[in-house]
């Protein structure tokens, strides 16, 4: 099983978006439907979702108008309104506005081995099982000579990815007391702008700090020689560096002490701490050169062990069902994403898809 792949030929934002929207129309429409169902279970009706989506799009337009133009292009290609495509790009903000949360989510490992050796990265991407057909792999050139490759959701401008400047991005959701129902710049647009523009961790931090957000996330940025977990909240942005051993691990709770005081996710869903402990206990394998070895280091199932590799409980409503939909590693020297469809328990040497 593999995810669909699309390579843009257009470089102007609206034209690039229209090309994508035309080619992936069915997946984008299905993704919007899946999120609409999720929002409905969270108590957000169609009129409220549209209002939140339009506001998030307006905030994104004020911050990065060329990205809003690309969203408009996707909508034009897919036969939709821009606010509908903005639903997917602002799904984190809409979920925060609806005060929706769940037990699952992602686990990320980045190791800088030093000695001129490339970074070793891997993460699980956990999400609701009814959205397992949402992911796509997308290659684009936001400007001549600069390539971005991203694992994202159909209609969303970016998520996890690499760029030809040698910078990579991992992505995890967070929840903070200051998250609000006043949608700000979508965090997925921040990830895309980092991939489009940043060549260093400092530049990525500057982009994150320039956005006014309403929902929290952590974007872990890595280059050949540096890494940082950029924890983004309405209360501010914190930068968490690797330890002295070059290890940087992140699940779904804040590592910065000041932001951790406003922690929401982990206070009643403590499995994120169990997952963090599992990563720490397996650092030696997570630092390995072989991606399959790193992925298998993530293999742990609940309830007896840390639920790093998640499988849905089909007795639960869809907003409480979580599945590891992808396992992803970054190859910065080659500017490549390596993606396995599903969790670590099904990873083999032959199941990797590369972009």
Automatic annotation (TrEMBL):
InterPro entries attached here? Answer: C45_proenzyme-like, Peptidase_C45, Peptidase_C45_hydrolase
> Which intervals carry biased composition (Polar residues)?
1-12
Residue segments, region Disordered? 1-20
Protein origin, superkingdom: Bacteria
Q: Coiled-coil intervals in this record?
A: none
Record-level Gene Ontology MF annotations: acyltransferase activity
Q: Which PANTHER family match?
A: BETA-ALANYL-DOPAMINE_CARCININE HYDROLASE (PTHR34180:SF1), PEPTIDASE C45 (PTHR34180)
Q: What is the species of this protein?
A: Nonomuraea jiangxiensis
Q: Does the keyword Acyltransferase apply?
A: yes
Instruction: List residues of the Peptidase C45 hydrolase domain.
Output: 122-332
Keyword tags: Acyltransferase, Transferase
Q: What is this protein called?
A: Isopenicillin-N N-acyltransferase like protein
């Amino acid at each position: 099983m593999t995810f669909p792949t699309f390579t843009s030929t257009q470089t102007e934002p609206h034209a690039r978006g229209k090309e994508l929207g035309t080619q992936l129309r069915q997946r984008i429409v299905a993704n919007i439907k899946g999120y609409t169902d999720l929002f409905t279970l969270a108590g957000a009706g169609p009129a409220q979702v549209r209002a939140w989506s339009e506001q998030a799009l307006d905030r994104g337009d004020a911050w990065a108008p060329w990205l809003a133009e690309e969203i408009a292009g996707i909508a034009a290609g897919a036969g939709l309104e821009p606010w509908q495509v903005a639903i997917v790009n602002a799904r984190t903000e809409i979920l925060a506005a609806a005060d929706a949360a769940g037990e699952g989510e992602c686990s990320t490992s980045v190791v800088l081995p030093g000695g001129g050796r490339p970074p070793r990265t891997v993460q699980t991407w956990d999400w609701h099982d009814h959205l397992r057909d949402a992911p796509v792999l997308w290659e684009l050139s936001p400007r001549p000579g600069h390539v971005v490759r991203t694992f994202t959701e159909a209609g969303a401008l970016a998520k996890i990815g690499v760029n030809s400047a040698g910078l990579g991005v991992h992505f995890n959701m967070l929840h903070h007391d200051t998250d609000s129902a006043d949608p700000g710049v979508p965090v997925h647009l921040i990830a895309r702008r980092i991939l489009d523009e940043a060549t260093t961790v400092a530049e990525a931090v500057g982009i994150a700090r320039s956005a006014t957000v309403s929902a929290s996330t952590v974007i872990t940025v890595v280059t050949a020689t540096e890494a940082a977990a950029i924890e983004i909240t309405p209360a501010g942005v914190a930068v968490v560096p690797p330890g002295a051993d070059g290890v940087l691990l992140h699940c779904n709770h804040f590592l910065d002490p000041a932001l951790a005081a406003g922690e929401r996710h982990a206070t009643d869903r403590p499995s994120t701490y169990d997952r963090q402990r599992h990563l720490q206990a397996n650092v030696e394998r997570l630092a390995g050169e072989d991606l399959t070895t790193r992925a298998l280091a993530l293999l742990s199932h609940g309830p007896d062990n840390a639920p790093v590799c998640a499988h849905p409980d089909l007795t639960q409503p869809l907003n409480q069902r979580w599945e590891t939909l992808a396992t992803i590693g970054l190859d910065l020297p080659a500017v490549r994403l390596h993606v396995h469809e599903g969790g670590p328990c099904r990873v083999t040497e032959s199941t990797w898809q590369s972009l």
